[in-house]
């Protein structure tokens, strides 16, 4: 038997249909992409840490982003991945102009999903911005706010610090590294004020700390289109929540905050 497909020609209508992405096939692709990114398929064990002291895979923890996976490309969990998808699909459907950015990307999973959603919808005029120090969290001595100094997140930089080359390789594994993906390496207070971003439709913050949250909100929120979304991954963390609440109060933002899971929230900009 030959391996030449030309020996078994497909009907013309089947060939023509291959170039079209139906809603069903799009949903299947994005759903599978989420499952692979969070690795709910092979169920890798967790890395124990002061917040989540577990080593085994736990379906509830992986769904809610309540573990540090040893292999998966994200630690945000399935609920937050679905939120990213929903926000992106809403701005696409509503024609809200702008790009996607995540500040604090770890292994890159959320940004990989964002690029996959854009590709599945045939969107070619939006960029996924991947912003991270790629070194982990600043040390306590480099942080000025006491609430950040007490958190001591830098003690876990052997897990939290993922270099840019590793994140790029993760994009390549999904065949999603292209010219619609742009990297912004460095500390947020240095890179974000001068980043060549014109407009944003989805702004996702995952910097954990008071300072990193404000370092992202101050330069990026003015670039967020009306109708765009702000997603705060670490709203349960005291420093992050204080920064968000102060920023909203200072700028008169009264758009309702909606909860994603026990850790995270989002809101849609109305004006």
From TrEMBL:
Keyword Magnesium: yes
A Pfam family the protein falls into: TylF
UniProt GO MF annotations: metal ion binding; methyltransferase activity
Keywords, ordered alphabetically: Antibiotic biosynthesis, Magnesium, Metal-binding, Methyltransferase, S-adenosyl-L-methionine, Transferase
GO biological process: antibiotic biosynthetic process; methylation
Pathway named in the protein's UniProt entry: Antibiotic biosynthesis
PANTHER family membership: MACROCIN O-METHYLTRANSFERASE
Protein family according to the UniProt entry: Belongs to the methyltransferase TylF/MycF family.
Protein name: Methyltransferase MtfB
